[in-house]
Amino acid sequence: MIGARALGLDVGAMSGSSNKTVDEKYSEDGWRSNCPCNIGYAGETAIFPTPPRFSFDDVCKAI
Fold first, then answer.
1. Considering only CA atoms, which of 63, 60, 62, 5 is closest in space to residue 38?
2. How far apart are CA 32 and CA 18, in angstroms?
3. Please, how many CA atoms are within 13 Å of residue 46, restricted to the half-sphere of its CB?
4. What does the longest C-alpha to C-alpha distance in the chain come to?
């Protein structure tokens, strides 16, 4: 996933799928699925904006 994102692709894990079913349908060489993902380029309206982040000073204090 990190490699695909580094290449500029959008990646999303697909939870809730049956690995057994995916393996039966798509694996011909004995490979097994672990975490099926969808990979591609999302439309502009499909990408959520990055939420605001706390500053370091807001969440940390010196002891």
1. 5
2. 12
3. 7
4. 58
Q: Count how many residues are written for the chain.
A: 63
Domain ranges in the chain?
2-59
Structure tokens at 50: 């990055």
Residue range 32-62, pLDDT digits in tens: 988 889 999 988 787 778 889 999 988 998 7
Q: How far apart are CA 24 and CA 56, in angstroms?
A: 48
Q: What is the CA radius of gyration of the chain?
A: 18
* Contact between 41 and 10 (Cβ < 8 Å): yes
